Automatic annotation (TrEMBL):
Sequence ranges assigned to domain E3 UFM1-protein ligase 1-like in this UniProt record: 547-676
Basic and acidic residues composition-biased segments: 463-475
Protein family membership: Belongs to the UFL1 family.
Protein name: E3 UFM1-protein ligase 1
Source domain of life: Eukaryota
Limits of the E3 UFM1-protein ligase-like C-terminal domain: 681-793
Amino acid sequence: MDDELLELQRQFEFAQQVKSSVRLSDRNVVELVQKLQELGVIDFDLLHTVTGKEYITQEQLRNEIAREISKLGRISVIDLADTIGVDLYHVEKQAQDVVLNDPGLMLVKGEIISQSYWDSIAEEINERLQECSQIAVAELAGQLQVGSELVQSVLEPRLGTLVQARLEGGQLYTPAYVARVTAMVRGASRGIFVPSNLSALWAPLQQLVQEMNGASGVAVENSFFQSLFNRLLKEEEMLGSLRAGTHWTPSVFAIAQKECVDSFFSQNSYIPYETMQKLGISQAVQFLQSRYPDGTPLAAVFIHSSMIEMLDSATEDAIEQNSWIDSLSVLPSSFTSQDANKMLLLCPSVQSALKAKKALILGESYVLSSGFIKGIYDQIEKEAEAFSIQASTASLIEPSSKSSESTESIPANTDKGSKKKKGKSVSMKTATVETVPDDEEEARPKSKRNQKKGKDSSASQKLDSKAGGKKESVKAQEGNDVIPPDEWVMKQIVDSVPEFEDDGMENPDSILKHLADHMKPLLISSLKERRRKIFTENADRMRRLIDDLQKKLDESFLNMQLYEKALELFEDDQSTSVVLHRHLLRTTAATIADTLLHGLDIHNKLRNGIEVGDSKTQDPLLLDISERTALAKNLNGSLSKKALALIEALEGKRVDTFMITFRDMAEESGLVLKKLDKKLERTLLHSYRKDLISQVSTESDPVALLAKVVSFLYIKVHNKALQAPGRAIAAAISHLKDKLDESAYKTLTDYQTATVTLLALISASSGEEHDCSSDRILTKRELLESQMPLLRTLVLGDAQAQQS
């Protein structure tokens, strides 16, 4: 076998030395290789070199790439393509296969780096660390022209072996350097005795390290200090607790905290949260509950159960004695009203009293027994009723004081020369027209035949009041309750319990304010119920009042219309017309206006639940202008405005203006006024005539007789009912001159002249017993009395006048 091999070697060597007679060109070789590939003799891929004159297999390319990497340790793929002479595409492709199959290689940004390269770099880094103690990873990455993350990932597995250092926060530190900084952190941390933020501790340490390293030193990150601190804490070289990574509480402080809390709580049976915060305990409730499971957390303090027992005893005594107690007064000043309220709700005696309605908690901290509250309320309720009635009627006129003086009252606008008769009431059925000065008040005769129609009108008004007026009155009564103000209620409470005055009325948290707020709704409810009861009782009186008012106005307003017609006779005599208008306004018009205002005022009081006494007098009401205005202003809304307009017309000079405003007000109040037609006018004149005849027959006063005779003559001559004051009698007689014969007219004028003379003597008389004018007055009166039968004949005729 060996001989054959040797023979083959000799033959091969001979063949190589023999010069070829036929040489192949490059083109022939390429074609030959292609032919061999087509025939399958060459069954592997061949790669061209960059020159195109050589072929190389992929395996050979990988081998050459591996050889270059092992020789250099770190080489660029571009440099490999230039070195091997193969296209960059094929080199990149095969380089990826090489790196993929060899775990000791890595392809980073177009460079292939071996682990041996990193080992050598690690040794170099270690040598540098021994010189400068610390190196920044970023600095190394810049020198090696790779990323910091790559350098860090390569160095981490070599720390403690090839690189004797510690990697922290992007910095490499030698063990000696770490030990020195660790000692600094340990010393600084052990010097802290109160809760601190570690971030504030690292700043001076960082400055100290920089000074130690000099100008060439690298700044140390806070994370390096923090990691050293955490390691020391884990190794229990420091005692304490770390919260949220930076809040350090030394154990010595925690021990002192607990001792302070235990001491305060054991001595006082409570501890305020404010005190806990001063001790540095932020989550006070959780801390105390874990330490004292039997305690109770409140809004501002944490208490022991003994505090509740103490408060329970004090409140129980107050409830049993029908008194009151301010729980804050028996608790320390650090307790708030919310704390007191929660403690009261935990007291067994308070719970049972609230359940049995024997006590009440006001303003969170005040406990009042029900008997104590009831005693105060009963007193205030009586005062509140009186206050409500007084406030409702303060501006209204009491009718009883006016009706008794109606016969003696004189209107505010009475002339200075007027006089009044004393002790003599004026009947509504008399039509006295005296020759005394014009402002003398007198009554008018009335017809009784219109009463039936008045009843019908009153009945219709009653229906109207039932249909719509009642609901409106109820609403008005509900809305017009006179409610005592808070200050009044508090003043009444102070009057009942003077000790409450010490808290002051202005303090919103005082027991006085809370008790007033509690009682006021009760008082309002009581007053409303009382008003509702009175209103129900007053409903029937209101209906009767409206009916009576309707009847009075029916008769009086018809008489007013009758008297108004007589004023037409004097329209051409302006001065006399003004006197007659004003006289009618001050007598008949004033009476019916006062009757309406007074009736509506009583109706308004009854509707608002105000008690009104029954007026038994039947005398006509007579008010002055201030009283009328007060009554008008007490009415509601538009009715008040119309009432004020009526008063203004009453003080004017025209009867027709008064009649318009009176109709408007009556219509606004729901009353129906009858209009004087021909039939009613005849009836009233007939009744008026009969009354005058009766009065002329029985009249004994010579002065008063003249006015009655003149009134009768106007009915007889003009068919008009004239109401004339004393100073208008002369003008009235002169208007009869053309209607009477000369003898009758002369009788009237002579009698009127003698009457004026008599009145002048009486006015000038001094009233002394020996006054000489008294004889003249007596003489003149006897003269008039002697002429009275002659004057009666103008009305009664000769036979009747002699009988009279």
